[in-house]
Amino acid sequence: MRISFLFLLIISSLLFSCQSKFNETIVALDSYKIEDGFNLKVIAAEPLLKAPVAIDFDAKGRVWVAQMPGYMNDLQGSGEEDPSGSIVILEDLDNDGIADHSKVFMDSLVMPRALAHVYGGLLYAEPPYLWFVDIKDDKPVNKVMVDSMYAVEGNPEHQPNGLELNIDNWIYNAKSNFRYRRKAGKWEKEPTTFRGQWGITHDNFGRLYYNDNSRILLGDYALPNTFINNKFFTPKSSLDKLLTSDQRVYPVFAGSVNRGYAKGVLNADSILVNATAACSPLVYRGGEFTESYDENVFICIPEGNLVKRALLTFTGDSVIAKQAWQEKEFITSTDEGFRPVSLKNGPEGSMYIVDMHRGMIGHHAYMSPYLRDKAKAKELDTIINFGRILKVAHENSTADKIPDFNALNGSELVKLLSNDNGWIRDRAQHFLIFKEVKDVIDEVKEVALNSENQWSQIHALYVLEGLNALSFDFLITIIDKSNSQVASHGLVLLKEFASTAHIEKALVLFNNVIERNEIELDLYLGNSLGTWMSLDERKFTPVMMKILTRKPDNNTLADAVIGGLSAVDTEVYNNFVIMDSLKHTPFVNKLARTISDKNAGKMNAIFTKEKTKEDTRTSGARMFFQICASCHGAGGKGIEGLAPPLMNSEHVKNTERLALIILHGLEGPVHVNGELYNINLAMPGLIRNESITDKDIANIISYVTNAFSDKPKRLSTTRIQELRNVKSSSGMEFTEKELQALDK
């Protein structure tokens, strides 16, 4: 008996010693407040994470994280070019809903900022490249460069990001005018509308939403790439629209804000008034919140340590946003390290928040002296080795178990096209396409034709599009029997089947659509007409006129029609009857500008822009640290005996004087803020360095005035070229008196 007991003890000890350690970090959320009826939970934190900026979910629902620990490690932004970034997989091995392990998928990356699980692998951005890798046993294999010019290197605030797979099977980005997809094993890239700054999202219909620092929500009134077929027309009334004029935010404490000294930035209690760093909007499509939250937009406000909620109204030819509340936010915190930078719909219907949890969220190239001083006083630059993923769930949520998409058969995937959760529907659509599950095409057609859920119908249509299983007659039936939203997608897809053989059927269909008198249908019918008019202008022109004369003052409708007229815009413009009957309408005015641009060879900028340009302050900052910081100091406060301070210097505030100093140099003594600096050295000018261009000088000025004065300024390269010829009396460095004389 004693031997048996000893044996059991040894076995138990061995089993216990072999158990995995669960590294769950407990983070108190006492300083956070969320809207009543919701729960906020930390599902991952340091040391499993460090500076997360983006997440996505794999086929099993696991969270994958792009980490950017090289961003703003100190007030000078040191280490940005170091390969310290990574992509990690969070695992919950004890199945309690909180990550306990972090597995490195890929490391030694320089500032990765976006990732997406698509085509069975991982698409990720590591500027300047966009890469795709297959996944085998949670390791990257078969690395392929998708785009060698995805982004310029430099400031992550102004580089493409997002990688949002939309319902139309294309992948869209913020801060970019390109979209991507893979078809028949080959990656495709084509122009699209330039959108936003950081983060991008889509609604159930497929419209895109985005924002920039000071505007909490921008978006398109129309489906992407439908109104830009005419390369000489820029549809300004329908794309890249400000959806609300209310930029008010409601932080619960006086945080540290860039340029807080400027009039109107802070209120009397030193609390932020309007957004200054809004990012990463998310249309909630999870289906687990209450009905009133369906297709609400949530917006990250990291500088205010909060997450905002906005309501959308769809009119058919526009989208209107309204803040859900005044004097209130969805999530607020008094933790100044709370930096929500990205939001995602989750596989089980929850909303996930990526909290970079960093003291300094703004790039050093844009940081004002005011914020530098605040950050140092509060030691915000020491909050650097953190990172959290938070989950928002409704208190009455009954989330289903997350399906393993890799284990599902075709019929099971088709059923998921009707799921309440938009993330599930999106993923089911994508898996049916990239796995080429063609044996369920009839089942997919049944969903497209007869589902009572309009969103599942739309998903089914794009499964068929991705599998090349659509036909003209099938789309005719869809458009005839479906509601306006489904029929609108049908009209978009029908353009691919335009041919002389289909003209008569198309005419009957289009006249039926007109009789329905629904503005949403008019938009997409009007947009498709140019394709059909190129086949028979005489037959389809009356259809166009019926639409335009019914709503002659509708700017979105004018955009829609002109955006599709690429092949016949000149013929329409030269048709006196059309122009006379619609004179003084937006259609005629916009078409006239389009033809003028066409004659001048002036295209919509998205068709001539090959990549996003680096912000001038970013490139200026790089040159400043290479050339100027060794004497003036990284913080612009000067170095005793070597160079005077730049901070609030009158020589910095005057951009022409600053240009002359940079170009030709400055000989002391010199006064700064009333103090004499009698340094026995002369600052050499850069004019003799042939590798430094006028643009370089302009960029340095842009950075220096932004970093070391209260008011950022720029100087044109043309003026800098002129100042090259302005010489001092000695022909060498200027003296202070000579510069002052030139001011008069």
Q: Describe it for me?
A:
The chain has four domains: 35-394, 6 Propeller (Neuraminidase); 403-469, Leucine-rich Repeat Variant, CATH 1.25.10; 485-604; 616-742, Cytochrome c-like domain (Cytochrome Bc1 Complex, Chain D, domain 2, Orthogonal Bundle). Mean pLDDT is 90; it is low at 5-19. The chain is α+β, with helices and mostly antiparallel strands and 744 residues long. β20 (297-301) and β21 (306-314) form a beta hairpin. It has 21 helices and 31 strands. The strands form nine sheets. Strands 1, 19, 20, 21, 22 and 23 form a six-stranded antiparallel beta sheet that branches. It has a four-stranded antiparallel beta sheet with strand order 2-26-25-24, with no helix packed on it. Strands 3-4-5-6 form a four-stranded antiparallel beta sheet, with no helix packed on it. It is 31% helix and 22% strand. The N and C termini lie far apart (106 Å). Keywords: Heme, Iron, Metal-binding, Signal. InterPro entries: 6-blade_b-propeller_TolB-like (IPR011042), Cyt_c-like_dom (IPR009056), Cyt_c-like_dom_sf (IPR036909), DUF7133 (IPR055557).
Residue-averaged pLDDT: 90
CATH architecture of the largest domain: 6 Propeller
Biggest β-sheet strands, sense, barrel? 6 strands, antiparallel
Structural class: alpha+beta
The helix content is 25-40%
At the fourth level of CATH, the homologous superfamily of the largest domain is TolB, C-terminal domain
Q: Which ranges are low-confidence, i.e. pLDDT below 50, for 5 or more consecutive residues?
A: 5-19
The backbone outline, from C-alpha atoms, is globular
* E-strand count: 31
The CATH top-level class label of the largest domain: Mainly Beta
Q: Could you name the CATH topology of the largest domain?
A: Neuraminidase
What is the number of helical segments per DSSP (H or I, 4+ residues)?
Answer: 21
Domain count: 4
The N- and C-terminal alpha carbons lie at a distance of: 106 Å
* Strand proportion: 15-25%
